[in-house]
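Batch queue: ligand-bound targets. Current item pairs a single chain with magnesium ion. No template structures supplied; prediction is de novo from sequence plus SMILES. Inputs echoed for audit trail.
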Amino acid sequence: MGKTNYVVGLDVGTSKVSACLGQLNDNNQIQIIGVGEAVSEGVKQGMITDLERATKAVSKAIEEAEKISGLDIGEVSLGVGGSHLRSQPSRGVIAISRSDKEITPKDVERVIDQARAIPVPLEQEVIDVLPQRYIIDDQDGIIDPVGMSGIRLETEVLIISGGVAAIQNMVKVVNKAGLRIKDLVVGSLAASSSVLLKDEKELGVALVDIGGGKADIAIFIEGNIRYLGSLPVGGDLISKDIAFGLRTSFKEAEGIKKEFGWAKRDLITNSGEIAVTGIGRREARKVPMEALVEIIEPRIEEILSIINREIQKSNLVELIPGGLVITGGASQLRGLEQCAEQIFDMPTRIGTPSEMPGLSQQSQDPGLALSVGLVQLSLNEEMETGHFHKKGKAKLFEPIERWKRWLEEIF
Ligand SMILES: Nc1ncnc2c1ncn2[C@@H]1O[C@H](COP(=O)(O)OP(=O)(O)OP(=O)(O)O)[C@@H](O)[C@H]1O
Ligand SMILES: [Mg+2]
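Prediction returned. Tokens below.
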């Protein structure tokens, strides 16, 4: 197996940084070679709050991935998310002037460029343009117009922009860790590629990635992102409540939540008592399981209700019979699926990165959905080189000129 064209997906989260390394094996299947993880510091809800600490965390995750794989990592595909992302629909129309009237990839590029040319606020920068559909003359719903004939080509796109400062600082951290950035990819799009089924995306589905500090929401209809949102709610809120309620440290509370936590009282199967270490040198105390769940239940219900309100606000609920897929580290809370099903009143499942060779041990960790998805997107793109317009992803992976310039300026 040639170890040359490997790719690295980097997710700089509030709780952890993960670097996932993958390549195509001899059968052209995506294989994960290694995942490096580090506790995150200096990052909050997709934004950098401390450059030095965040750089250290990124370096640590990369070093771990290098150690596992025996490879040198120089370039990464970086996921971006958080409330600084905005999405905005736009349209482009061009005339096909050639005599044969056959639409070429260049025409598709031209129509997307036209749709992209809309004013964005000064503090925002376009990071992605996602074609939704094409219209040739009066024929609607065209997925791939290349090779078809027509006089007028029209497209509807979703323009994704991000906060200039938020992205610049994230880029700075990655560069300071000695890495080049190959692509900036919308995090939800990456996560969707590792946890959503193609049929779900076509049918209509909401993907919710609940991390430590935020919940990223993406609604897919007919295979495309139609709605993006991010809320400042995540698993850290639950751990903080536990730390406060049981008078213990945040770290201890995290451990208790992961080992004994349940989302709902009536689902508990492991009743009994938990030993809780107090802050300072206090002796460990015994706390009944019920007391722990009494803390978790109202908070997780609140988090899910806030997410539900956001999804309702999109006015797309009628268009998502595929229901809800919850991923991200916080989706591992026991009983979350049942709790969410009640609150959202939709079919719900927990999304873990799809089974791939080399990912066996970690495949059950939904916290890796984003970094694994980055690898998938990047390698799929490599396989499709020359067919950039396929699946309506024109320009998706091309560094947008302005941030290409930032990279040059910073590096
Ligand atoms: N087994 C578990 N049970 C419950 N919660 C868990 C479990 N494992 C991890 N978590 C929680 O998941 C959260 C971290 O999720 P994740 O790793 O996806 O976050 P992140 O991507 O770093 O953060 P963000 O996306 O918010 O910036 C933490 O709140 C952590 O306590
Ligand atoms: Mg995350």
